[in-house]
Amino acid sequence: MKVLVAVKRVIDAYVKVRVKSDGSGVETQNVKMSMNPFCEIAVEEAVRLKEAGVATEIVAVSCGPQQSQETIRTALAMGADRGILVQSDEALEPLAIAKILKAVVDKEQPELVLLGKQAVDNDFGQTGQMLSALLGWSQATYASKIQKADGELTVTREIDGGLETIKVKLPAIVTADLRLNEPRYASLPNIMKAKKKPIDTMSPADLGVDAAPRLSVVKVTEPPARQAGVKVGSVAELVDKLKNEAKVI
Amino acid sequence: MDFGLSDEQRMVVETVRGFVENELYPLEAQVERDGELPLETGKAIQRQVLDMGFYAPNIPEEFGGGGLDHLTFALLERELGRASMALSVWWGRPSNILCACDAEQRERYLLPAVRGDKMDALAMTEPDAGSDVRGMKCFARRDGDDFVVNGTKHFISHADVADFVICFVATGEDQTPRGPRKRITAFLVDRGTPGFEIRPGYRSVSHRGYHNCILTFDDCRLPAGQVLGEVDRGFEVANTWLGATRITVAAMCVGRARRALDLALDWAASRKQFGQTIGKFQGVSFKLADMATEIDAADWLTLAAAWQLDQGLAADRPIAQAKLFASEMLARVTDQTLQIYGGMGLMDELPVERLWRDARVERIWDGTSEIQRHIISRDLLRPLES
Ligand SMILES: Cc1cc2nc3c(=O)[nH]c(=O)nc-3n(C[C@H](O)[C@H](O)[C@H](O)COP(=O)(O)OP(=O)(O)OC[C@H]3O[C@@H](n4cnc5c(N)ncnc54)[C@H](O)[C@@H]3O)c2cc1C
Ligand SMILES: Cc1cc2nc3c(=O)[nH]c(=O)nc-3n(C[C@H](O)[C@H](O)[C@H](O)COP(=O)(O)OP(=O)(O)OC[C@H]3O[C@@H](n4cnc5c(N)ncnc54)[C@H](O)[C@@H]3O)c2cc1C
């Protein structure tokens, strides 16, 4: 089975994000960028499926600026076979990315598309679902376990307060949650092999996709600073405050 | 000229950094507290690195190593330099000098070292012969086809976990116009060889848990097959293969200095005194500016020296300059970091005091700062002297 994995280049999850002074977005100049952690989990799952003899080929796709090529190379170093960069310097919204991915799916005809459940930059959490709708394919989101049987997948999903196990018919869209796996470190031989693996570059227009934004960002602000706590003098005072101020007991 | 990293180099850096931060940092407090790392923890690190195909990255691919060039290897060492050496020692980088092994020695030493089956250590220094290595007293006399060795080595790093030691021993003396000059031979000496003992060394203020040892030879008999390279040509072998080791010292200093700077920046941006973060005081912010500038300077000196080696250019001076500047820079940067932390910088709650202590040895081992200055000035003056 051929697997397509979507990978997004985002501000590194450990970087302290700063809002631009004009409130139009966040500062990305001289900021460390990495693969979205949930995409990493998706790549890892694809590689495991290949190691288990379930997947035959892994294609890593990224939509974004030229530098997203680095993100694809990282996926190749983890074990993907080849890459596709759909290059766009415009900010791409989930719907645009879903349309682009649909066009890539039409070309590549994979049986499974793996994505992260969300990207840690905008936290939209929509792309996988939109792609599924555009393709008319089954979807299994927030996956923490994936097993393949004949023509279908059994997927354990993380839901509020527990786990849900569902069966979906292939071809399918699956989005990866945190506990699906622990991504490996790229091996040195694979890092060296990655440079020889091909990456095709195309534009949304090449795929016949109108990627123009539908949304406009009104304002980006920092989350409110956390207020300092108070020290209480005695247990009695603590109980009093919990009862009468916080009203939690 | 291109100062950018290739995709491979970037991924090497990111992977090593990720490993160091996720797998090694969490073990550091324990190493500092206990002054040692349990053997099984070390072996587990080694296992992980082997599985990643990142073991012996400096050794050519034809011997099963990673085959990195000097520049990429320096980038790797830079990231490893962030972590405690008691931990990073298990990310095996066998001495390059093992590439001088003959076919038979390869099977017994180089290949097992690359596979992680054997650990190597390297011994030159003696109680009476430090900077003046050639003044060594450790002596091997010929006895038929064998050599019989007597003498003592000290300060030998991680020999406690080594399975064999590459030992430099005097095998004769030449009379020269400038006085007697010892001939030196390199030997491969297995732990457990009768007459050879690896004993605990001194307790060092730098790099807790990364031990140095004392080696004693008491009529230790070594067959001729244990000679690495040619008899009496030990320094030629060393000069061919060990120049690059000093780059790794420089690179580790740069990595460690960047970690210190990151800590200093965090503190300067969060610690408040006199109603504002201390980074807002010029007395603190200018320190940060100088630290960042010096670190970058050391970084480029180091990478440029590695690049020269890769190009096959004479690199002794650039390597000495990189080692000298990076190790002295690290001392200043860790000292300033500690200063920015104020009293807390001295406390073992935080890694700052450790980085400050660890920095001290870098100006001493692998050739003291003074010896590096000798190498540099000799190279500058030699063409001008008649
Ligand atoms: C923790 C640790 C680990 C080590 N690991 C190893 C190891 O694995 N293998 C190994 O072989 N060695 C090892 N060494 C030894 C290290 O390389 C030596 O310490 C170093 O070469 C200096 O020798 P010394 O300590 O005997 O100092 P000395 O050579 O006695 O020097 C004392 C002082 O005199 C100065 N000096 C000496 N000669 C001159 C000169 N001509 N001009 C100006 N100044 C001079 C020196 O710069 C220094 O400041 C280690 C040392 C330490 C501390
Ligand atoms: C071992 C030890 C024993 C001690 N014993 C005692 C004791 O017995 N009694 C007692 O009361 N205290 C004691 N102290 C506290 C000591 O006096 C303080 O550590 C010292 O005053 C510095 O304060 P701080 O550590 O909070 O650093 P901070 O004041 O937080 O300073 C952090 C850094 O910011 C710099 N900085 C701060 N303000 C400015 C500014 N306006 N402009 C430029 N730079 C600035 C400082 O110079 C320093 O580099 C002790 C400290 C230690 C380490």
TrEMBL record, chain A:
Keyword Electron transport applies: yes
GO BP term, pick one: carboxylic acid catabolic process
InterPro entries per the UniProt record, alphabetical: ET-Flavoprotein_bsu_CS, ETF_a/b_N, ETF_b, ETF_beta_N, Rossmann-like_a/b/a_fold
Claim: Transport is one of the keywords in the record: yes
SUPFAM superfamilies: Adenine nucleotide alpha hydrolases-like
Gene Ontology MF: a single term: electron transfer activity
Protein residues bound to AMP: 6, 36-39, 63, 116-127
Cofactor: AMP
Boundaries of every Electron transfer flavoprotein alpha/beta-subunit N-terminal domain copy: 23-211
Keywords attached to this entry: Electron transport, Transport
Task performed by this protein: The electron transfer flavoprotein serves as a specific electron acceptor for other dehydrogenases. It transfers the electrons to the main respiratory chain via ETF-ubiquinone oxidoreductase (ETF dehydrogenase).
Subunit structure: Heterodimer of an alpha and a beta subunit.
The family this protein is said to belong to: Belongs to the ETF beta-subunit/FixA family.
The protein's name: Electron transfer flavoprotein subunit beta
Natural source organism: Tistlia consotensis USBA 355
Automatic annotation (TrEMBL), chain B:
Limits of the Acyl-CoA dehydrogenase/oxidase C-terminal domain: 232-380
Stored PROSITE patterns: ACYL_COA_DH_1, ACYL_COA_DH_2
Pfam annotation, one family: Acyl-CoA_dh_1
Domain of life: Bacteria
Annotated ranges, domain Acyl-CoA dehydrogenase/oxidase N-terminal: 6-117
InterPro entries: Acyl-CoA_DH_CS, Acyl-CoA_Oxase/DH_mid-dom, Acyl-CoA_Oxase/DH_mid-dom_sf, AcylCo_DH-like_C, AcylCo_DH/oxidase_C, AcylCoA_DH/ox_N, AcylCoA_DH/ox_N_sf, AcylCoA_DH/oxidase_NM_dom_sf
The keyword Ligase belongs to this UniProt entry's keyword annotation: no
Cofactor: FAD
Alphabetical UniProt keywords: FAD, Flavoprotein, Oxidoreductase
Keyword Flavoprotein: yes
Molecular functions per Gene Ontology: acyl-CoA dehydrogenase activity; flavin adenine dinucleotide binding
Stretches assigned to the Acyl-CoA oxidase/dehydrogenase middle domain: 121-220
Family membership noted in the UniProt record: Belongs to the acyl-CoA dehydrogenase family.
Name under which the protein is recorded: Acyl-CoA dehydrogenase
Organism listed in the record: Tistlia consotensis USBA 355
Taxonomic lineage from the root: Bacteria, Pseudomonadati, Pseudomonadota, Alphaproteobacteria, Rhodospirillales
